[in-house]
Amino acid sequence: MNKYNFKMKKTSKILFLFIGLIIIMSSCKKGENDPFLSMQTRKAKITGEWKLTSGNINVKIYNEGTLSSDATETYDGEYRYYNHSNTSFDTIVYISTFNFKDDMTYTNEVIRSFSFFDNQYGAKYTKITNHYDGEWYFAEGDDIYKNKERITYYATVLKTYYPDSTVTEEKTSIHEVTFVLDKLTNKEMIFRYDSPENSTTEITGYMIFEKN
């Protein structure tokens, strides 16, 4: 075997290995806007603390095929802006953080601050903190979604804190929510809402989180 043929075979092997590596790494791409190549697993990327930085959620409710309610919530990481059918508007402080842990548990803290009118004392300002504890997992694939393209988390305990009072409410078995992970990197995560077909409540939009 001459040197030319030896070099050609060596180059071909390297090329095939490189192509194989690209195929394996690209198969890790689950979300529509995930990076094409990634050396980390999806679980490794999502593990950690995340803060909501922006979002836009639209909720339409239909009654016998007729739109009866249309509400939009917009988030900028510090505030939530609410618009209901261009007739009702509201703005409150809204801060949400998640901590997805390696043992498949999570915490979610939502801080809301807003003003309201009390008939006895007049205008008041209050702050409510909701602290959720629960478990999370990647949803299995189906005819529509890839394996691990969605995340499901379900809260098992909710504690509500009112700083103006010593009373703390606690509830169990709260809710289960599934989102499409439209994008997941080491620094950014995007939850996307996809409503089931033929649903009387249509929820669309997204929420963007950045890792702390």
Brief sketch in words of this structure:
14% of the residues lie in helices and 58% in strands.
Commentary on this structure:
- With 212 residues, the chain is mainly beta.
- It folds into 2 domains: 1-30; 47-211, no CATH class.
- Helix content is 14%, strand content 58%.
- The protein is built from 2 helices and 10 strands.
- Strands 1, 2, 3, 4, 5, 6, 7, 8, 9 and 10 form a 10-stranded antiparallel β-sheet that branches.
- The model is unreliable at 15-27 (pLDDT under 50).
- What number of structural domains do the residues give? 2
Cα distance spanning the termini: 57 Å
Q: If helices are DSSP runs of H or I spanning 4 or more residues, what is the number of helices?
A: 2
**Helix amount:** 10-25%
Please tell me the overall pLDDT: 82
Low-confidence stretches: 15-27
Q: Over all CA atoms, what is the radius of gyration?
A: 23 Å
Order of helices and strands: HHEEEEEEEEEE
User: Major sheet, described briefly?
Assistant: 10 strands, antiparallel
Fraction in beta strands: over 45%
Shape: globular
Q: Which structural class fits the helix and strand makeup?
A: mainly beta
How many beta-strand segments? 10
Show the helix and strand layout.
Elements: H1 3-26, H2 42-46, E1 48-63, E2 66-75, E3 79-84, E4 88-100, E5 105-118, E6 122-138, E7 150-161, E8 168-184, E9 188-194, E10 201-211
Antiparallel strand pairs: 1-2, 1-4, 1-10, 2-3, 3-4, 4-5, 5-6, 6-7, 7-8, 8-9, 9-10
Key structural traits:
212 residues; mainly beta; ten-stranded antiparallel beta sheet; 10 strands; globular
